[in-house]
Amino acid sequence: MIRRFSRLCASLALAALLAMSAASARADSDDGIVRVKSAVPMQEAIARIKADIAAKGIKFFSEIDQSKLAADAGIRLRPSTLLVFGNAPLGTQFITSNPNAGLDWPVRLLLTQDDNGDVWAVWTDFEWIARRHNIGDRVAQFKMATTVVNSITSTIASK
Question: Do 91 and 103 meet the contact criterion of CB atoms below 8 Å apart?
Fold first, then answer.
């Protein structure tokens, strides 16, 4: 009886932890922005994310160091790097449903550092993108895209 109760408590604690983790990576319903805090510095976060993208066989398109671009223009900007990547068999399905969805594909993942020195992975919520482009016929694909990006950003959630 005590073992069952202990297992039940452990299961409930795990479920609560997973729910809190999922909630922390949800978009604000107003702006569609998802933010995940990194446990590692900016350059390590970039390296981990790029390595995971490559390991998953996803095409990596570009790394744009926005803070360097700003510095080149004489503007000071906190560290900010945009990573662009995608999986054509998945991403182009959104564009075939609504060509305007090409504004949001391929995936763009921003790594930015706040005033406190914390690093964040930031992207546009895929359900929000679906609503933005009135795409109702690709629910499974949007869920898959969410799962993939959550998996990619999980690589920076712990040291």
Answer: no
Task: Confirm if 122 and 146 have CB atoms less than 8 A apart.
Answer: no
| Locus of tokens 């922005």 | 33
CA–CA separation, 85 and 151 (whole Å): 14
- pLDDT per residue over 11-45, tens digit each? 333 333 333 444 345 554 578 999 999 999 999 99
* d(C-alpha 75, C-alpha 123), whole Å: 24
Indicate the pTM of the whole model: 0.81
- The closest of 38, 146, 156 to 91, measured between CA atoms, is 146
Nearest residue to 54 (alpha-carbon basis) of 79, 85, 97, 98: 85
> According to DSSP H, which parts of the chain are helical?
2-24, 42-55, 66-72, 88-97, 126-132, 139-154
Tens digits of residue pLDDT in 60-79: 999 999 999 999 999 999 99
